[in-house]
Design goal:
Blueprint (H helix, E strand, L loop, with lengths): L1 H6 L1 H24 L11 H15 L1 H14 L1 H11 L6 H24 L6 H21 L2 H15 L5 H14 L2 H8 L4 H25 L2 H17 L5 H24 L11
Length: 276
């Protein structure tokens, strides 16, 4: 078993991540499903337990990364992983990219929709501008570290030694999208295949941006910030029409491919990146 993990660390990582997350999330789905029609009938204690279990499931990528790092490389490599989580001394332009690029991308198709007579997203109407800013700042503080520690800190960190950025984006992006399947079941009770297909394409395309950012900075902190900004943009600046969604995905693809092609031409060996 250990020899297989040594030979195929990324495959082992994906397997362990899915086992941890899907065990937790599918348990939440099956236990909560009888109460879906009338959730107010669910015991408060049960809801708290299910919420905790859901949070543990969300931490699956990070937990798997920590377990495998200790198993394969020991405490010294775990300390190096922690260093990458808090690596903040990078060119400020990468902070600008992580915090503003997704907002700019989402604003273009949303603006087109508004000009064509569509209404503002409900979340903007409900929360308002100040609510959006507050929600965004809170999410920035919490980050998506529990995921990025695994997807970038372990999976991409191994793949970048042998794979091109484009291949890495597909290798990580597809499992990342499939990893969310139980969450769709928890939230909706079933999966709309067309909706999930569009979601999968969007996740893979956005992975191009995250792959580029981690390749340039080796900072889990920066990719977590980008992850948060993407999630918040998709919540508050959501497009509702097919045309809007199509424009959004085309824009993301263009930006991601340009960045990755530029990076590939000017690639720096990751061992040469100065560590804090």
């Amino acid at each position: 078993m250990k020899s297989f993990v040594h030979k195929h660390p990324v495959l082992a990582y994906f397997f362990l991540t899915f086992v941890i997350t899907w065990t937790c999330w599918l348990t939440v789905f099956m236990v909560f499903e009888p109460y879906r029609a009338l959730p107010e009938l669910a015991p408060a204690t049960l809801l708290i337990i299910l919420e905790i279990l859901a949070k543990i499931g969300a931490c699956g990528p990070g937990i798997a990364a920590i377990i495998l790092t200790l198993m394969l490389y020991g405490k010294s490599e775990l300390r190096e992983l922690v260093n990458r989580i808090f690596r903040w001394r990078v060119n400020p332009i990468y902070y600008v990219f992580a915090l503003l690029m997704p907002i700019a991308i989402f604003m273009i198709p949303l603006s087109i929709e508004l000009m064509l007579g569509e209404s503002f997203p409900n979340t903007i109407v409900v929360y308002g501008l100040l609510g959006f800013i507050f929600h965004f700042l809170v999410r920035l503080l919490l980050g998506n570290y529990e995921e990025e520690i695994g997807w970038r800190g372990f999976a991409q960190h191994h793949l970048q030694k042998t794979q091109s950025p484009i291949k890495m984006s597909f290798i990580i992006g597809l499992p990342h999208a499939l990893w969310h399947i139980p969450m769709f079941l928890i939230e909706e009770g079933s999966i709309d295949l067309l909706v999930f297909l569009i979601y999968t394409i969007r996740v893979v395309i956005f992975t191009f941006l995250v792959t580029w950012l981690y390749s340039k900075t080796q900072s889990i902190l920066l990719t977590a910030l980008l992850h948060v900004t993407v999630n918040e943009s998709s919540l508050f600046l959501a497009v509702n029409t097919f045309q809007g969604i199509f424009i959004l995905m085309v824009l993301i693809a263009i930006v991601g491919i340009i960045l990755i092609l530029f990076y590939s031409e000017n690639r720096t060996n990751v061992d040469d990146i100065v560590k804090p």
